[in-house]
Design a protein that fits this description.
It is globular and about 65 Å long. The protein is of the alpha/beta class and 346 residues long. Helices cover 40% and strands 23% of the residues. A 6-stranded mixed β-sheet has the order 6-7-8-3-9-10, sandwiched between helices. Strands 2-1-4-5 form a 4-stranded antiparallel β-sheet, sandwiched between helices. It has a 3-stranded mixed β-sheet with strand order 11-12-13. The protein has 2 domains: 218 residues, Rossmann fold, CATH 3.40.50.300; 69 residues, CBS domain Like (Alpha-Beta Complex), CATH 3.90.1280.20. The chain is built from 15 helices and 13 strands.
Length: 346
């Protein structure tokens, strides 16, 4: 298992006048509803444990009130925990005093917000350079670096516009360029694409994934949308009422939901567009010249099978054979309504 770059250990957050007293009650097994009605405290997080490898996208998802935004704000200590610890790159951040914490926030983390958080009186270029200004970059160097990232997110030519002159999707691209310009290793994204229209949202997801292939940032991405989580996440943690219900790869979440709550999230998902060939691969000696890549989604694999007229394929990861998969394996993994209602062979 990969060593954790960010490690969240036994994290609790209780809101109210006497959180320490309420913490003892929670440790005795009192749930969120009882804590509120009988003890006038709100249980934000309840014994959260998550390890995040360097260079991966960790999605935190759940419905409103699940604790996902509370959790991400602990990573930069905008919220202080009631109990537990957070270790980032070997450092216990709860031990940081104000000057060290300030440097940590400026150098280690950038954040992309749901509401864009652009300064309306500054140009696109000035907004993109704002984080660099705070760090202390020379103005010319800051603008040069900001210009580079604006080009990378597709905003070349808009440098002298103001936020009010941009669409929502373009404003969020500015926010992403601003976050990337500081070159911080950790990127926090709190419902970053939730305010966007579906097509623009999908486009921004694609921009993020394309950049991540090159940059390998450690990204903590908050969302309430499972389709978004499944598309971008290397790992997904699902919260409910401040409790971590399940943590695993997108394949594990879909194929092995921990309980009915997770099953309800996944039941409407089109598995053919989420599950990858590697999740169904098994080791055997099937002889075939049909090759599938391990990260092919099942929808694409079905099209390959259809065009080849074969019923077995070898599966390859990074040029190495890891096993085989059959047409029947794929058909069995996809709910019948998907096969009936969508022309996946088209």
């Amino acid at each position: 298992m990969e060593q954790a770059f960010i490690s969240i250990k036994n994290l609790y957050k209780i809101f109210g006048p006497k959180p320490a007293s309420a913490f003892a009650i929670v440790k005795n097994g009192v749930d969120k509803a009882t804590l509120l009605t009988q003890h006038n405290h709100v249980l934000g997080l309840n014994d959260i444990n998550i390890d995040i490898p360097r260079g991966k996208i960790q999605v935190i998802m759940g419905l409103s009130g699940s604790g996902k935004s509370t959790l991400i704000r602990h990573l930069n200590r905008l919220i202080e925990p009631t109990a537990g610890e957070i270790i980032i790159d070997g450092h216990k951040i709860m031990d940081f005093q104000s000057p060290q914490l300030l440097q940590f926030r400026r150098k280690m983390m950038s954040m992309v917000f749901q509401k864009f958080a652009l300064l309306p009186h500054k140009t696109v270029l000035q907004n993109a350079a704002y984080g660099l200004d705070l760090i202390g970059f020379d103005k010319r160097d800051a603008h040069r670096r900001a210009q580079t990232w604006l080009e990378r997110v597709g905003l070349s030519g808009f440098e002298n516009r103001y936020p009010s002159q941009l669409s929502g999707g373009m404003q969020q691209r500015v926010g992403l360029a601003r976050a990337l310009a500081t070159d911080a290793p950790i990127l926090l994204m709190d419902e970053a694409f939730s305010a966007l229209d579906p097509l623009i949202r999908s486009d921004m997801q694609g921009v993020l994934l394309d950049l991540q292939k090159e940059l390998h940032k450690t990204i903590v991405f908050i969302t309430h949308d499972l389709e978004e989580a499944l598309r971008i996440g290397d790992n997904i943690a699902i919260l409910r009422d401040g409790v971590l219900i399940q943590s695993g790869s997108p394949q594990e979440i879909v194929l092995k939901p921990a309980d009915d709550y997770v099953s309800d999230f996944t039941q409407e998902i089109n598995r053919s567009r989420v599950l990858k060939v590697e999740s169904l691969t098994h080791i055997d000696d099937v002889q075939t010249d049909l090759i599938l890549q391990s990260d092919d989604v099942l929808e694409d694999a079905l099209k390959t099978f259809a065009s080849s007229k074969q019923v077995h394929a070898r599966v390859v990861r990074n040029g190495e054979d890891i096993g085989s998969i059959s047409l029947q394996d794929i058909i069995s993994a996809i709910p019948r309504p998907v096969l009936q209602n969508e022309n996946i062979y088209r």
